Amino acid sequence: MGKYPHYCVKALFFLCSCFHLGHAFRPTYVEEEAQGVRATLPGELKFVHVIFRHGDRMPVDPYPTDPWNNRKYWPTGWGQLTNRGKQQHYELGKWLRKRYSSLLDARYDREQVFVQSTDVDRTLMSAQSNLAGLYEPVGNDVWNPLIKWQPIPVHSVPEKDDPVLAAKAPCPAFDYYLENFKASAEFQAKWARYKDLFDYLGQNSGRPIKSFMDAQYFNNTLFIETLYNRTLPEWAQKVYGGADLTYVSNFAFSINTYTRQLARLKGGPLLKDVLTRLESKHKKQLSPDRSVFIYSAHDTTIANMLNTLKLFQLHSPPYTACIMFELRVDDNNRPLVSVFYKNTTAEPLPMYIPGCGVSCPLSKMYALYEDVLPENWTDECKRSTLTMTYEEANLGAATGILICIIAALLCVSYGLMIYYRRRDYNMHTSYAQMA
Ligand SMILES: *[C@@H]1O[C@H](CO)[C@@H](O)[C@H](O)[C@H]1NC(C)=O
Ligand SMILES: *[C@@H]1O[C@H](CO)[C@@H](O)[C@H](O)[C@H]1NC(C)=O
Ligand SMILES: *[C@@H]1O[C@H](CO)[C@@H](O)[C@H](O)[C@H]1NC(C)=O
Ligand SMILES: *[C@@H]1O[C@H](CO)[C@@H](O)[C@H](O)[C@H]1NC(C)=O
């Protein structure tokens, strides 16, 4: 089945080239336009920070009544990257090579590029497939003429210790603000609007839908099964592809960054990481002085980042969706940032940064996003007792003890006061007697 799309693409490509016979091998109009826009961005390209989603994968966790809920239908295993996914990232790697050849020598050099992935099989494998496209061995790096591939390091941090890329490290303040948001009238109204859909899905799938995220996971399983030509049960066909299920799946991507407080704690660390790196690069403080950073992550990473930047339009980030932060420096040595989002095969256009434009001074980026750049994430994640409820803070017991202590202090000071008054009085009288 992996071969079909390949031939289809080739056939399509052939047909297209026939139509374009007059100017074969020229990029399409849209591509030219996009490259034109990129060429007119002021300054010289110095650095890029790339963040992408993994490629095509198997379902993560089918629902209990799923007729396709059997490992034998999904040979590479739950949630694993497929050959299609590898191919997609290999293509993206080739595209990145073309776009950033001014920043990267054809030969791999560790002083030019750094690659990090979340600690998940499919993102690690996507990064490696991507690098196969980005760095085909050339010259002295050819180590085995039969293998057009060379090993490139991909770094990773355990998910629970990774507040930046995986964004899964515990953060009690985030949990608290999220509960607050979920209790809001706006959220509750939305939940009520889709309650019937959720009940319907829960009853038929054998797994209750307790959150928008649950609905999104369910939609995602149906999405993959459809992609793999598996016939969906009739009850599922009635809702899959419909406006409601699509909307709730897309909406789920916005929840973790819905308010600026949430965005600060969920997306802020990654945005800060990127901006800080752009700044270090510009100040020549990066060591080694690399020009490309690549992060391999998830659809949630893409959605959280876009929403933290106020650039998210409700949608499900597709496989290999890719954000690029490009740093240019103009004639006055001013660092300028452009953000691109590539989520189709078309050449991406720079996004319009709200209040700044397609080429935004780095200092202005800091100012624009000050509200979502945590000063000390670890500290901000601790919940101050002010934001806690009575029971949560266990204030019941604490207050009791406090009241006892205050009462005791009051008694003691009252006692002391009386004692000193009396003594004072006695002393005064004795003085008087002496006089
Ligand atoms: C949900 O389904 C729609 C198709 O109706 C698809 O475009 C979208 O990517 C799916 N979202 C997820 C998260 O799978
Ligand atoms: C599903 O069917 C379509 C149309 O026949 C085909 O192009 C596609 O490659 C199939 N998908 C898979 C994963 O086999
Ligand atoms: C691509 O991104 C744009 C901008 O966020 C969005 O409006 C669109 O729906 C996305 N399309 C796909 C296929 O992801
Ligand atoms: C953040 O605050 C903690 C104390 O809560 C401190 O240990 C840590 O060094 C601080 N981190 C930074 C980057 O200042």
UniProtKB/TrEMBL annotation:
<protein>
    <recommendedName>
        <fullName>acid phosphatase</fullName>
        <ecNumber>3.1.3.2</ecNumber>
    </recommendedName>
</protein>
<dbReference type="InterPro" id="IPR050645">
    <property type="entry name" value="Histidine_acid_phosphatase"/>
</dbReference>
<keyword id="KW-0732">Signal</keyword>
<keyword id="KW-1133">Transmembrane helix</keyword>
<dbReference type="InterPro" id="IPR000560">
    <property type="entry name" value="His_Pase_clade-2"/>
</dbReference>
<keyword id="KW-0472">Membrane</keyword>
<feature type="transmembrane region" description="Helical">
    <location>
        <begin position="395"/>
        <end position="420"/>
    </location>
</feature>
<dbReference type="InterPro" id="IPR033379">
    <property type="entry name" value="Acid_Pase_AS"/>
</dbReference>
<keyword id="KW-0378">Hydrolase</keyword>
<comment type="similarity">
    <text>Belongs to the histidine acid phosphatase family.</text>
</comment>
<dbReference type="Pfam" id="PF00328">
    <property type="entry name" value="His_Phos_2"/>
</dbReference>
<dbReference type="InterPro" id="IPR029033">
    <property type="entry name" value="His_PPase_superfam"/>
</dbReference>
<keyword id="KW-0325">Glycoprotein</keyword>
<feature type="signal peptide">
    <location>
        <begin position="1"/>
        <end position="24"/>
    </location>
</feature>
<dbReference type="GO" id="GO:0003993">
    <property type="term" value="F:acid phosphatase activity"/>
</dbReference>
<keyword id="KW-0812">Transmembrane</keyword>
<keyword id="KW-1015">Disulfide bond</keyword>
